[in-house]
Amino acid sequence: MTVVPAEPATRDESRAQPANGKRRRLQRLTRRDKLVLTAMVAIPTLIELVLIWVPTLLSIGLSFTKWNGLALSDIRSNGLHNYSYVVHDYPQFWPAIRHNILWLVFLGVIGTPLGLLIAVLLDQRIRFSRIYQTIFFVPVMLSLALVGIIWELMYSPSSGLIDNVMGTAGTSRAIDWLGDSNINIWSALIAATWKHVGYIMILYLAGLRGIDPTLKEAAAIDGATEKQTFFRVIFPAMRPINIVVLVITVIESLRAFDIVWVFNRGRNGLELISALIVQNLVGEGQVIGVGSALAVILLVVSLIPIVIYLSRVFGKDK
Amino acid sequence: MTDTIDRAADLSPLDRRTGTGLRPKKRYGTHLFLVAMSVLWLIPLLWTVYTSLRPFADTNAHGYFSFTGKLSLHNYQTAWRQGGFATAFSNSLIIVVPTVLVTLFLASLMAFAVSRYSWKFNVTLLIVFTAGNMLPPQVLATPVFEMYRLFHLPNSVSDSGSLLNTYWGVIAVVVAFQLGFCTFVLSNYMRALPGDLTEAALMDGAGVWTTYWRIVLPLCRPALAALATLEVIWVYNEYFWPLLLLQSPDRLPVTTAINNLSGEFLDNYNLIAAGATITIIPTLLVYIALQRQFVAGLTLGGSKG
Amino acid sequence: MSDLDRFSPPTAPSRRTMVKGLAAGVLGAGALPALLAACTGGSSGSSSSSKTATMGSSASDPVPKKAIAAMVSAFEAKSKDTITVNTKAHNDFQEQINSYLQGSPDDAFTWFAGYRMRYYAKKGLVAPLDDIWDQLGTSNFGPGIVKASTGDDGKKYFVPNYNYPWAIFYRKSVWQAKGYQVPTTFDALKTLCTQMKKDGLIPIAFGDKDGWPAMGTFDYLNMRINGYQFHVDLMAHKESWTSPKVSAVFDNWKSILPFHDPAALGLTWQESAQKVGAKKAGMYLLGSFVTQQYTDKATLDDIDFFPFPTMTEANGQDALEAPIDGFMLSKKGGDNKAARALLAYLGSPEGQNAYAKIDTSNVATNLKGDFSSLSTLQKKAQQTIANAKQISQFLDRDALPAFANDVMIPALQGFFKNGSFNQSGVESQAKSLYASQ
Lengths: 318, 305, 437
Hints:
Structural class of chain C: alpha/beta
Strand order of the largest sheet of chain C: 2-1-3-10-4-11
Structural class of chain B: mainly alpha
Largest interface: A-B, 134 and 126 residues
Largest sheet of chain B: none
Radius of gyration of chain B: 25 Å
Radius of gyration of chain C: 26 Å
Strand content of chain B: under 5%
Number of strands of chain C: 12
Oligomer: heterotrimer
Distance between the termini of chain C: 67 Å
Strand content of chain C: 5-15%
């Protein structure tokens, strides 16, 4: 049971075996070994529970209170009021939901497939592969401030590269890429895609390297074209990676924060749930109850892909 | 889908190393596409670097969209001096190095325990870890802040009397956040190692720790290198937690501190661009140093089996 | 299998290596950060007897930053105490004030008068400064300023440094060349705007990317139309946002909306100030700190301002928006003698002179200060403040911070975009937020 079986053929047997193997294995461990194993599991688990899961539960609790974030004794119960406030009275909430969905669709339809395409091309052992790889990966390495500045230099209506190239800079026809609330979400999406593609490319490159080369060769011998080989053989074989990438795309879209925050703190057309949470939880105008309610909404929405993903990945082990 | 794979696998009489099935082609179309994409990807970067190399007076006189050929590193010197980079970089170092080492160490322990041994809750725990990694960090902001504030420490250890405003606090929460991802990747990697390895070690009388430290961990080097690269990038670029937990500006790491630049340098974009460009150097160096292992070590889904 | 070969047969290394390894692990996980934290502990060391103190400053722009530094070094020279100034980006400092005060604040810090000050005083996060005020003498400050430095409990919590009027700024040379007259009524303002538009100028420069500058326009319209008292009550949410009086504000604003810079939502106030400097825009309603942007002496000398025009007979031009910036002590800093001495100095004529010498965009608050070297513009600002019948702070200083930041900023930006202000929406948000404090 120690290893997930390599051959699909043996999968059935292995499913039956672990019970025996496990018992045998555990019996053979000395007491000291058991202690070591316990410590190996206990220390990381404790950290994970105390710093991730306990705060998550506390956040859920806070979403039913009203509190200004100062003295703990000021916390008052507020029932479901924060949730009704968010849904009914908070004008930024629904635009934020729409923008998060748009973010997901845009990355899912453009960013992720582009990353996959580049990875597939680079996997063909072409020349300069490593140089291309570095170029696409550089945006992934950038700090938040650098991304903000880079795109400000591109998007500024007076001195930005884009308006200058279009010849509209400084005129009334100049497009205000970041200030115009009809456009700025697209400007932010382009910047986000610029970062996202490199990340997806690396994940797929890793996935493609993990694929048994005999698959390709066999398909070639079968007379399949490259396209057919990819869609019928390679892509299905990458299923585990596809799921990882899918989940990462969803999670990254839900968690999107940095880019809108540097552009304008997530206001005026760039509302995203995560930015609203930060405005409510961390700013001078702290409204912990409302911020926590937003956080819980984001948490619940995030849990859907997480649960689907984990049940796929770990389901077969159980 | 699996059927296709199996059939394809059965049909493979060739040695997987020879690769004679694929004749190398001249891929002009591919290169054309990749070059075009690379140019698109590079324009924003190069434009920033170009701006950062130009004197302020020059762009002031001719506008940013001009090509006068006057380039110098002067902005970099000024930005370095005025931006407090020396402090910020050492703060980043103090945060990034322990965070990455501790994360990888703890994650490898956990991954080893869940992937090489079987016991009742290991899948459950792996789920708890992986899901934890995917939570939006903002969800935890308030409780973590309050827990830290109420966690009393002697003033000799922390001048805030609590975990707030300490590097320790930032390191702990970032470690917790990154643990999930690293555990997941490493457990996949360790699972793919042949079972005979540990079996043999056990026969030889090696204990759990020896098996982990002497056998499994060395074999995980490619995965550790890849993860180290990713983690250095992520932790170095961490903006949210230092901003929330560190109050003294002289303790902020580069990514958070650089926010001050735009205030300091006003609309001198040349200087801001220079300052921001400096921040990418450490991650770029780490990436270049570990690039060879990078892709090979990132076996996420364990599609090899 | 090479890795297995390296594995030496079962001598008994396991226990020791394991213990060592574990120890290394535990040390790595626990002791290293502790050491690091210990290193960081040294930097503050504020105790009651100390001759050192720290001050957190939001003065990140070059001119005020230099001015604060001058003030502090003048104090150091006099007292032989050592003060460390920690400067943070202005907006970040403001946004993090809650976590800052609860976390590890400096002994002293820069802050604002108004609700924003009283709020933290009420929560017990700052130290009372009555003894410092005994030294400063309340008679040396205008009554409005003394009142603005006082908390709800009657204690003083704030030492003022300077204040600055909000008014409409313009370039004299442009106005002379085109023959524009200073408008004293709202109708005259509109006529002027129409003329400027014809002349190819942006009549009203406006930069609202950061959200707060638009509040100044709202405050003035509200005080001119509905009077000071209504404005104060609205800020305290004793009046409703659905009131027809509020509708009147936005109806009037709408009539001048076409004269505002259409690019406003993508511009910071600094960028908008440059448009006035470059003679592209005709006028700009902002605080007098706008003059910090004109580093060129000729431009600076060419700048003048006039008060926001009259809209109703009854309210005239009585009310003035003149926010006060100054200093406070954190709870911890309240015990620090050096920090207390610092604040007493910063409020004194000497201290304020040191500041005013460098930052000429503001007006010192201590009436005993040296005003002989004031520029014409500064003298005018000082007089404007002295003549004002009522003084407001600013929307984000007079109202609940959560309301100002989370509700008004998007609502005003939305108004600028769509020309409509959702009064009932803002009212229901105000109800929830004010109730939860």
